[in-house]
Amino acid sequence: MKEQAREELDLQQFNIRTDLALEARELAKPDGGPIPGIHSEVTEDDGITITVLHVQNEQGSQAIGKIVGQYVTIEVPELRNGDTTLQDRVATQFAKHFESFLERLQINKMAKVLIVGLGNWNVTPDALGPIVVENVMVTRHFFELMPDQVAPGYRPVSAVAPGVLGITGIESSEIVRGIAEQSKPDLIIAIDALASKALERVNTTIQIADTGIHPGSGIGNKRKGLTKEILGVPVIAIGVPTVVYASTIVNNAFEMMKNHLEEQKGDTNQIFGLMNSIPENERLQLVKEVLGPVGHDLLVTPKEVDQFVEDIANIIASGLNAALHEAVDTDNVAAYTH
């Protein structure tokens, strides 16, 4: 009877949107078992969890809904506490893993790099990209105007925050493509705010991917992305989840209430009935079905988002400075944090 009720609900029509490959894998295989075409490795470093996930082929891509490529996720649950020592350690880890992407893509030490900060600088949760652009070391003009005075250990780096369609009336990908055609970079780094399905990952997680990026994908927009196919050069994507859906909060609250009652009473079937038998990802889809039509599936961000976004943008900027310029010490990026 329960199975029949679940079929009538048709839960599968409501997709759970997440920009994190790690979460897509969790949704595809909640028990953590192996997925054909997906290889992952997890390492721990004193409060920093690093997951390297490789989508090896089309089978793996279809299984989790992510493009073939490599995704590195850096999770730091305590990052919201404002610990500057921890922030420096995260920036160092970020720099080292970003360097591995440069090596894998065979980007040489003098290759020209264009950093693109996607997002709306007027909306704090979406301002990650523009804030990173403000804090990275921009050097291309020195190489153009006074190349003989540039010290060893630096490369030509340019940066731009192209704004969003609602402000400029132009797609970000069109702006970046025009800039790339004129400045001819060897690599593009695209930075954007993402959406997560987990409260604990908001403003505490950084994802690096060699698959490019799609502006607005985290909130359901389907527009032209920044990829090698579109721009003609490799694109490394950097993203941080800064928002979570209201449906996720409702679902997480349900799970916490269920766990609390199980500790108090043991059996919760009398209270929750059918809801007890529905897997978490399907229950989330059901919540979205309820909230969506009435316009209540809002995008939510913590009230301290101003400081969180500023801190994590500085972590990314200082990590990029260390990874892109040999003259910047990868093991001591604190000196280069603005």
Automatic annotation (TrEMBL):
<protein>
    <recommendedName>
        <fullName>Germination protease</fullName>
        <ecNumber>3.4.24.78</ecNumber>
    </recommendedName>
</protein>
<comment type="function">
    <text>Initiates the rapid degradation of small, acid-soluble proteins during spore germination.</text>
</comment>
<keyword id="KW-0865">Zymogen</keyword>
<comment type="subunit">
    <text>Homotetramer.</text>
</comment>
<keyword id="KW-0378">Hydrolase</keyword>
<dbReference type="InterPro" id="IPR023430">
    <property type="entry name" value="Pept_HybD-like_dom_sf"/>
</dbReference>
<dbReference type="GO" id="GO:0009847">
    <property type="term" value="P:spore germination"/>
</dbReference>
<feature type="propeptide">
    <location>
        <begin position="1"/>
        <end position="19"/>
    </location>
</feature>
<comment type="similarity">
    <text>Belongs to the peptidase A25 family.</text>
</comment>
<dbReference type="Pfam" id="PF03418">
    <property type="entry name" value="Peptidase_A25"/>
</dbReference>
<dbReference type="GO" id="GO:0006508">
    <property type="term" value="P:proteolysis"/>
</dbReference>
<dbReference type="InterPro" id="IPR005080">
    <property type="entry name" value="Peptidase_A25"/>
</dbReference>
<keyword id="KW-0645">Protease</keyword>
<dbReference type="GO" id="GO:0004222">
    <property type="term" value="F:metalloendopeptidase activity"/>
</dbReference>
